[in-house]
Amino acid sequence: MVAKAGSSLGYVVYRLGFALRETGQALDRVGSRLQGSYAFREELNRARPLQNLFNLKPSLGTDAFVAPNASVIGDVTLGPRSSVFYGSVLRADSGSIKVGAGTNIQDGSLIRTAPQSIDEHAADTTIGANVTIGHQVSMHGVTLEDEVLVGMGAVLSHGTVVRKGAMVAAGAVVPPGTEIPAGQIWGGNPARFLRDLKDNESSFLAESAEHYVNVAKNHIKENSGSLENVARARGLA
């Protein structure tokens, strides 16, 4: 039997389910005690979206979004309206990571600082405003200027500089110390110049960033409420 959204019967069913789950957890704890040393115990996981690293602390601008299972660690600064989506990791332990306003870092990406020992290039990673970083991108010790787009699965090695309004194609592998001029598309392994961007492609770069600002707003709203309020909004309570 399916209860109508918002009905009293639906709320009773929801509360019954909640009580059964709580009872199950309590029984699991009792069973673990009875099993003693043979019990499987899930250790406390300290992972959380924002993590200090000694005296290094992340900083978030107004309306920045960090997904619940993303990790922003150490000396990371996220600009206003920027977003870090699910499963992404930003780890700044040997330098700083700065992300500009309106920039989006999509699911499963890894952004790090470069070890100080790697040649003469700066260890910091600096990402400008209104940048789109696609899914599962990996980069460390790089500089991206404003309105850059990095395609899915690209790898940007230390010392890479991508100038304003340029694009790195999906799956590209950019060698250390490469500079990609403004308004160009680079791709391949190793990455090389492919062509200049067309006018409609250049305008798309800013549009892509603004699109993800709006997407992030929905995720902020979804993740800000309690579980019970979310269930009510979906007609489950």
UniProtKB/TrEMBL annotation:
It comes from the Eukaryota. GO terms for cellular component: mitochondrial membrane. It holds the Pfam family Hexapep_2. It is a peripheral membrane protein. It is found in: Mitochondrion membrane. Gene3D superfamilies: Hexapeptide repeat proteins (2.160.10.10). Belongs to the gamma-class carbonic anhydrase family. This is Gamma carbonic anhydrase 1, mitochondrial.
